[in-house]
What does this fold into?
Amino acid sequence: MPPMSDTRFSGTDNYVATEELMMAVNASVTLGRPLLIKGEPGTGKTMLAEEVARSLGRPLIQWHVKSTTKAQQGLYEYDAVSRLRDSQLGDNRVTAIGNYIVKGKLWEAFESDEQSVVLIDEIDKADIEFPNDLLLELDRMEFHVYETKEIIKTKHRPIIIITSNNEKELPDAFLRRCFFHYIRFPDKETMERIVDVHFPNLKPELLREALESFFEVRDVPGLKKKPSTSELLDWIKLLVAEDIPLESLREQDSGKAIPPLYGALLKNEQDVHMFERLAFLHRRNNAG
Amino acid sequence: MLVDFFYKLRSAQLPVSLTEYLMLLEAMQARIATVSVDDFYYLSRTALIKDERHYDRFDQVFGAYYKGMEELFDEVVGEIPEEWLRRQAELMLTEEEKKQIEAMGGFEKLMETLKERLEEQKGRHQGGNKWIGTAGKSPFGAYGYNPEGVRIGQEESRNRRAVKVWDKREYRNLDDTLELGTRNIKVALRKLRKFAREGAAEELDLDDTIKSTARNGGMLDIRMVPERHNAIKVLLLLDIGGSMDDHIRACEELFSAARTEFKHLEYFYFHNCIYESLWKDNRRRHTEKHSTYDVLRKYGQDYKCVFVGDGSMSPYEIAYPGGSVEHWNEEAGAVWIGRFLEQFPHSIWLNPKPREHWKYTQSIGMLEEIMRERMFPLTLRGLDQGMRELKRRNA
It folds into this structure.
């Protein structure tokens, strides 16, 4: 067994991790098993891998999965077409098949001299068989290259973090080999800490008002897309940049129910429309 | 002890396997979780549960199994800090009760007795009137009714005990028999995907490349084919108005999810049952009608037909000519549905009413019979079964 890292992940100076998330990360790091992360969009799934890598001081290897990605591409690709072309042009390189093997992200991670963090991002985007094709590789952390007949073994079991947006269900056999964590939408307390990490010099009153309007917006029933953490952070960035006075945030209680610069929070025409209608009703009620 | 827990989870129909159980044991051995029950809860959840829809059920099993077992953890952790007990008591007691305590010798005395008891007590205890436990008459323990009682280990305790985490049941909404968001529907609808090649050439067609290279006398001739796209065709028929008003939201979500998911989606509205005309815009239902015969002729057998409706109506509306509540229909609703089933062999009926209620409405039973049992509730699981049904008949 290669030496395991004895450092524990406990969040970083710009990432707030809940206790349950830390437990999941540490379990996966210690046992060298992949960690599967799910959660609402904008709750920092992808960022987690970056922060784990940073806090443990490991290199990060990112593998972004698309609908056309094949599992094999993570291991290696044999570029038969360019070999065929070279053979027709009489290139000398053509004799060694190794010249046409292109290493994939997992190969890179397996042969790295220090333990690395591998992010397999949005695994659910790929074909339904994708996770099954990686079972053995993630379990034993080794694979066989047919073309050169060599076996690539890992030197240091990488920390593997996989994210999913739930677009496809993952096969049971795959799930059984992972630790799993669902990042739930942060509560007010956690959200304060998150904002604090990103905007350390924010005036407390502004933070309070902004968070209040934010959670109010989220609580509006019937929104097509509820604003997420990353949208809140963008919004606050705008509020600070535009130097919006506190009063205009407060004003909405007494009349205009639409927070300033709401475009950062509401991304859907219907939502904006509904909000404006609610604001109108609100005004009318207050007037009457 | 842990094995019991494992079997409890299995009997709650959580798909936990031996691999995961061994993984949990390995993690415990590696001392990832320390002695706190909180840690153990998080660790066992991350190791055993692989789907947030199961979190709620896991919380319930965990809560039920570990009720009363928290003491095991407490014993390891050590004694209860006196400061907490004091704060606890102050919070719990009314002014009157506090006076009674004074009568007993004051708070100090009470705490002293409690400490003695704690030392005397060896195991968990329930009932009786001296030991610390639950439901007893002793001044110490939970759920007691001695006015000078001190509550230990109850849900509402102020020391933020771990038990709160699962008592909260925050993941209730994610249980798959309950919520049905657009996103969930999309996931279910995706089961219906069938890919076919369409559009611009993007992928290498190896077979064709080899063939044409050979024909080319060995000079490379690369051939490309279009990428594959979802080629499933769906005809969606939605019941609207009347008793369906309660289910509008669920249907809207189904509709918007279906619209983005399929390239070929046609939809029509009907009221209660299918008759000779359908419509596309509910506001102009009386002016812009589509003849049902036209619909039947226009869309080919390869369309998959999905009816969505609560099927709650008078039995006459299905069985007799002239039974419709809105107009005079020459032919019975059942005849029309039969025509659809004939034209579209892959048909299902989705019902937004919970399955348990179906048996109380006669018309639903009739429809189920006409559909030959292909009626499914509009929950995630029901959708899943429905999609599987559509796919199966496809093979």
Notes: Confidence is low (pLDDT under 50) at residues 74-80, 122-164 of chain B. The interface with chain A takes residues 15, 17, 19-20, 23, 26-27, 30, 32-33, 38-39, 42-43, 45-47, 49-52, 55, 170-171, 174, 182-183, 186-187, 190, 204, 218-220, 222, 227 of chain B (CB under 8 Å). The longest strand of chain B covers residues 195-204.
